[in-house]
Write a structure and sequence with these properties.
Helices cover about 40% and strands about 10% of the residues. It is an alpha+beta fold and about 450 residues long.
């Protein structure tokens, strides 16, 4: 039996395969190997993409980069393959891909544990991504060698075991279904690529506090009738109280209905030469939709906006609004000339999956806005993406109202129909989840 003494070994010996059974398993191995080759290409393209984008930010990696992180990237296909395994097991459709997913995941874990590679520790994102590319190539070669061993020695490998999601499969289980290219194959590749991008980028943004080039600040907006420092930029905890950072509107057509001005970036325009963006309500018949749509419209037009937290009740709408600023040097408090730079739109559109109000703005994005805010707790990262994230609470305080309709906590991971899967994998799965069943 091959792989004796490894986690692929199985002491339970089944009857020898017949020639027809060997042929069927080998046909499935060919598709499995092709899928992995396609996945390798997807990962290579993503490394190039991420490298090109992050190196423009001047990221400086921490000096304690470890092989553990690199192995996590290497085996990310195994993580996302669990998605298809769960879906197939639950529906009974495409069980072959569930077995294939388990085979890829277990083989990747085996290869990662047995690779004799030199750990390369770098001091910048170029080095990290270069090593990721090298590791991707090395892993691909070793994975293909193992798949070829399955193919060339199918009968001897028939009882190799693949554990995934508390389910154990063997190579022999590939007799249960016929793998083929098509919708299931294509959408698993899409989802795997999204997870790989996420796994590659988030450590670069969070491993070291010195790498936090994105931050959140409260910029004082106009409050008519109050003497406030229009355009003044504060750390979230330093915002003046009163008037504070919380804003309140009536839940009626005069507060958030059609044609009512809800959002503006005039506080940013006050000291920056960017275009003014004003967003209005759009629906008197569905006021909740009018408000949620306004968040989407404003975020799309002004992606450096971070509206969080917010809550809609039967009487009032409450919200807090921050701006994402860029730079390693944090801001000086100068009401006459606040010193801050807003990140470029293209970068933020690439980074974020959602708008924070249940709308997906980029299915291929790196992370959900809530994960950027709470990466330390939700993703178990060393830090959050934003240095001052912990100064922003998860809930609106001192709300005295009745009949809560929804809040930002309901939409941390996108729309209702996919939020549970999105939360589980921390990438968007809504557009492929139903396709996984065919």
């Amino acid at each position: 039996m091959f792989f004796h003494g490894t986690n692929l070994h199985n002491n339970n010996v089944s009857p020898d395969l017949t020639p027809d059974e060997v042929t069927k398993i080998q046909k499935n191995i060919i598709i499995l190997k092709k899928f992995y080759k396609d996945l390798y290409m997807v990962q290579g393209n993503i490394i190039t993409e991420v490298w090109a984008i992050l190196k423009t930010k001047g990221l400086q990696s921490s000096s304690n980069t470890t092989e553990t992180w690199l192995r996590n990237i290497l085996a990310s296909c195994g993580v996302i393959c669990s998605f298809i395994a769960i879906g197939c097991a639950a529906t009974g459709v495409g069980i072959g891909f569930a077995i294939a997913a388990a085979a890829i995941a277990a083989t990747a874990a085996y290869v990662a544990a047995n690779m004799n590679s030199t750990v390369v520790i770098s001091n910048d994102v170029t080095g990290d991504m270069g090593y990721a590319a090298s590791l991707n190539n090395t892993n691909f070669n070793k994975m293909i060698q193992v798949f070829d061993k399955y193919y060339d020695n199918t009968n001897d490998c028939r009882d190799c075991k693949f554990d995934l999601n508390n389910q154990t499969y063997t190579l022999r289980d590939l007799l249960k279904d016929d793998l083929k290219e098509g919708t299931l194959y294509d959408n698993l590749l899409i989802l795997s690529g999204r997870k790989y991008r996420h796994n590659l980028v988030m450590p670069e943004l969070t491993n070291d506090v010195n790498k936090q080039f994105l931050d959140l600040y409260f910029i004082q907006d106009v409050i008519h009738g109050k003497n406030v420092e229009h355009g003044h930029c504060y750390q979230p905890c330093a915002a003046p109280n009163p008037p504070g950072i919380q804003r309140e509107r009536n839940y009626n057509k005069d507060g958030i209905g059609n044609g009512v001005g809800i959002w503006s970036n005039e506080e940013v325009v006050h000291f920056n030469s960017c275009s003014q963006v004003d967003v209005y309500g759009s629906d008197d018949s569905d006021l909740t939709n009018s408000y949620l749509t306004s968040i989407n419209d404003f975020t799309v037009k002004m992606p450096s906006t971070f509206i969080y937290p917010w809550i809609v009740t039967a009487e009032n709408v409450y919200s807090q609004k921050y701006f994402i600023v860029m730079g390693y040097a944090k801001l000086r408090d100068d009401q006459n000339s606040p010193n801050y730079t807003l990140p470029e739109t293209n970068f933020l559109n690439w980074l974020f999956i959602d708008d924070g109000a249940g709308h997906i703005t980029n299915p291929e994005g790196v992370c959900f806005r809530y994960d950027a805010l709470r990466a330390k707790s939700t993703l178990k990262m060393n830090n959050d993406v934003f240095l001052h994230a912990q100064q922003i609470g998860d809930e609106i305080l001192n709300v005295i109202s009745s009949g809560m309709k929804c809040s930002s906590s309901d939409f941390r991971y996108g729309p209702k129909d996919s939020r549970d899967l999105n939360k589980e994998y921390h990438v968007y799965a809504g557009d492929v989840k139903d396709m996984m069943k065919v």
